[in-house]
Structure formats: structure tokens, C-alpha cells
Amino acid sequence: MLEHEESRPASELVAAADTIAVVGHLRPDADAVGSICATVAAMRQLGKNARGYIGELEPMPENLRSLPGSEEVEMRESLPDTDLVIVVDCGSRERTGSFEKDIDRLRDRVIVVDHHATNPGFGAVNLIQPEAESTTTILNDWFGDLSVQLTPEIAHCLYAGLLTDTGCFRWGRPVMHDMAKQMMEYGLDIRAISADLIDNTSIENLRLVGRIISRIEMRQAGPYKLAVLVADYDTINGESRAAVESLIETVRSVQGADFGAVFKEYEPGVFTVSLRSTHLSVGSLAVHLGGGGHIPAAGYTARGTELEALDTLIDAVVELGESMRSSMVAR
């Protein structure tokens, strides 16, 4: 839980600002957009001129448009002039996309709120709690210190991040249920929220997912078995990004696999790689490959052919070996 003394420097920066830019990460998920929208609403309640931004021009995934305030989030290549930047759910400065140089230049006016274990802390104030289930969990604590009054809209956004980053409450601390109960007291239709974010799909998306899943392979990677899905450029170009991103949960618990990886080729020769495991530290693996994330959920970017990208991952696993397991146990 975020303590008042930890959040005080961030609260002081907010108090001194008139304009606030709230920034989420590239290829956003529900925790990122929920965090942006909840924070913008909270800052406006405090009388601030706040807006949300994502540093890329790709349109937001359709399922995230169900979150209150998401229609105002701007996708753009540079940050506007602002007194303060609040970066939410970005495990590194690079995850802010085209805003990276702006964030570096404005470092003395940057607050980072995040729960990625590999976050180095790139703001003037860093509210980083790797044990938190979602970034919205940390924001909920901070909003209490700021005397922000929750509304059904803010509660909806906070709940969305918690719901999705816990795999629909399949992992996390007991306090996640306390927070869910708190949010539900604002009259949320949790069945509709789950349907909007997770369940609703189309025949076209199901066919896309089916084509990709039909290529699943099991590979030996050092002492571990790896379940691999490859979503190549020709298959996913112009298709639903939300459908592609949903694939990672498919490989998390494949019988006989120690961990799973999904290679997504959104640009020719550039793979966004998502890693998941229930008992290994894929976070340390992602850091080794230039990325980051959580202990059981992480990612990085690979370049080259499909075979080269896969070989690079397997070589890294061989190099790290049993330390991936011991890192997980140590946590």
C-alpha cells in the first residue's frame, strides 16, 4: 500500500501545477488507458487542466474505448507544453514512444506511477510498487492522499486496470478483492465491463486467432520448455490489434510448458515479444534482451527474421539457465 510520506512529493508537484499531461504506454492495454483516464478525471477534480496522451499514431484498440474518458485520449508524436507530466504504467522511458525525448527533457517535472518490477525510475518522483497488482491500484491509494472523491467513472477505470492485470483475479494479493469491492460500491456493471474488455469479439477476430494458434509449437529452451506463437506481418497487418494481444494468455498455461512467448510482427522484421510464466522470472529474461516488465509477465523487441528472433530468445534462456527459476523463488 502506498504510504502518505511516499506520495507527498508527487502531491506537492500536482499542487504547484496548472496544466498536466498524463501519459500512457505504447500499444496500450486496459491498465494503461484506465490509469490515464482515471488520473485525468482526478486532476480535473482538483481544478487542473489535464489531458491524456499516448506517444504513437496507431489508433487505440476498440475494446478500450469502453472506458470513460478514453475518447479524449490523444495519440500524437510530441507532448504539448505543460507544467507537469504524470507517466502511468510505463516500465521504462522507452515505453512512452515518441514522447521519450520530451520525458527526458522534462525530467524535473515528471511523476512516474507504475508497478513494473524492472522500472528504473525515470521521473523526478517515482511511485513504483512492483508488488501492486496494477498501476490503477497505486493510483487508488494516491487519490486518497490527494482527497480525490471517487466517481462511477473513475471507479470504472480503476477497476478495469485491476481486472485485466490480475487475469480476472486469478493472481494477486488478497487486497485486490478489497479494492474490487470498493470499486463495485460505485454501481459498476462488472459483467458489462468484463464483456467489453475481454469477452466480446467478432467472427473475423476468432478466425484470425485460430489461424495463429494453429501454428503453436513447443521448443526446448535450455532447461525449460517454451510454448511459441508467431503472429507474422502478413497474417496480422490491418487486423485487430486487440485480438492479437489477447493471444498471450493462450500460451501462459500450456500443459508441459514452463513459459510462453508470442512474437507479433507489427512491422516487417520487427517483433514485439510478450512473455508469460506462472513460475519463472520472465522479467529478468526480458531485461536481458533489452526489455522489461513483471516477474511473471514481460516483453521486449526483437529484430530480424522469425527464426532469428526465436533463436535469440532461446540463446538468452540457455545463458540465464536456472537463474530464471531462482529469481522467481527469491521474490
Q: What does this 3D model show about the protein?
A:
The longest helix is centred in the N-terminal third of the chain and has 16 residues, at 30-45. Helix 4 (135-145) packs antiparallel against helix 5 (152-165) and helix 5 runs antiparallel to helix 6 (175-184). Helices cover 41% and strands 20% of the residues. The chain is an alpha/beta fold and 331 residues long. The strands form 2 sheets. A 6-stranded parallel β-sheet has the order 3-2-1-4-5-6. Strand 4, helix 3 (100-105) and strand 5 (110-114) form a beta-alpha-beta unit.
Radius of gyration: 19 Å
Strand numbers in spatial order across the main sheet: 3-2-1-4-5-6
- Record field, number of beta strands: 12
Number of helices, where a helix is a run of at least 4 consecutive DSSP H or I residues: 14
Specify the structural class: alpha/beta
Order of helices and strands: HEHEEEHEEHHHHHEEHHHEEHEEHH
Summed over residues and divided by their number, the pLDDT gives a mean of 94
**What's the N-to-C terminus distance?**
18 Å
* Beta fraction: 15-25%
Overall geometry: globular
Uncertain spans? none
